[in-house]
Amino acid sequence: MDPDYFKSYDMCWGTLGTVRPFNNFHPDRDVQEIQAALQTKDAGTLVRILTNRSNAQRQDIVRTFREKTQKDLNAALKKALSGEVEVLLLDLLMPPLEYEAHRLQKAMEGLGTDEETVLEILCTRSGKQLQEISLAYKEMYKKDLEKELKGETSGDFAKLVIALLDKEDVPSSVQRDVQALIASLNGKKADVVPWINILTSRDTDHLNNELETGQAMEELVEGRFSGDVQLGLMVLVECIESPYAYLAKRIATMKPSIVQGLMVSHSEEDLLFIRTAFLKLTGTSLYTALQQKQFKGDHLQALLAICRSED
């Protein structure tokens, strides 16, 4: 870890992220070190610098590198590195909104869709954030995110996904909403429409009140729905109850793409909360768990630097 990290720690005290702005930041000096590291393929130095700078500071490094060398830092990293550490450092160089758009694109790429990654992003981001991610997606891929999601999904699941993408908070009565949800289950076939309409259009406090009325929402969803729409509703209910517990459960799979995606995505926002939820869920700190699994070498060191410390 960069020894000056703890000097910057106090500067941002109170943040829920683990990666904070570096206090003694000089992009010219960083670029000089990065140039030397690229020539010798010194992944350790690249990891040390890029995991100890905020995303805004990394964008300054990218611009300064281009000004000083007339080259693209992403291309230079691809030439000097390979494997998982290359992918992780390239992820860190992406602006946050572009990174979420990138994760959505990857989830829809190729045969089959990674439904849970799509749901994770749609369920844990606000309506305003999703609008911004949609704009970033269009800028990056010259495609409309809503149309892409419609093309990758179908039926009731498609309705749920699009409702999540376009969600906005609408005030309503908790009691009336709960009655509508229960009523939707009384027929031979459960009606998913009220569940989609209510669970994607109420603020979190309102929905948490619904979930505290004694109705076991997960049991209702599991018992009356099936397939992708069941998965979508289950993820949505879990995220309403505790997004951090849901994200910790995702990380606990220890699948490299999930661990890396979530840690980069939440490193400056709320990774401390996710770490706390992970410890509660597994009985082990995330910092320790990373060292017990398949992560190795510079890739492991980069993940540990983002995680930052034991709990």
Question: What's the arrangement of secondary structure elements?
Answer:
Blueprint: H1 5-11, H2 27-40, H3 43-50, H4 55-69, H5 73-80, H6 83-93, H7 96-108, H8 115-124, H9 127-141, H10 145-152, H11 155-165, H12 174-183, H13 193-199, H14 204-211, H15 217-224, H16 227-241, H17 243-251, H18 256-266, H19 271-282, H20 286-292, H21 297-307
Explain what the structure shows.
The chain has 311 residues and is mainly α. It has 4 domains: 5-93, Annexin V, domain 1, CATH 1.10.220.10; 96-165, Annexin (Annexin V, domain 1, Orthogonal Bundle), CATH 1.10.220; 174-236, Annexin (Annexin V, domain 1, Orthogonal Bundle); 244-307, Annexin V, domain 1, CATH 1.10.220. 70% of the residues lie in helices and 0% in strands. It contains 21 helices and no strands. The radius of gyration is 21 Å and the shape is elongated. The two termini are 17 Å apart. Residues 1-14 have low confidence and may be disordered. One of its GO terms (molecular function) is calcium-dependent phospholipid binding. InterPro entries: Annexin, Annexin_repeat, Annexin_repeat_CS, Annexin_sf.
Relevant terms:
mainly alpha, 4 domains, about 300 residues, disordered N terminus, 21 helices, Annexin V, domain 1
Give the overall form. Answer: elongated
* Largest sheet geometry: none
Helical run tally? 21
- What is the CATH architecture term of the largest domain? Orthogonal Bundle
Low-confidence stretches: 1-14
- CA-CA gap between termini: 17 Å
Order of helices and strands: HHHHHHHHHHHHHHHHHHHHH
Q: Provide the helix percentage.
A: over 70%
Secondary structural class? mainly alpha
CATH superfamily membership of the largest domain, which one?
Annexin
Number of domains: 4
| CATH level 1 name of the largest domain | Mainly Alpha
Radius of gyration: 21 Å
Overall average pLDDT? 88
Strand fraction equals under 5%
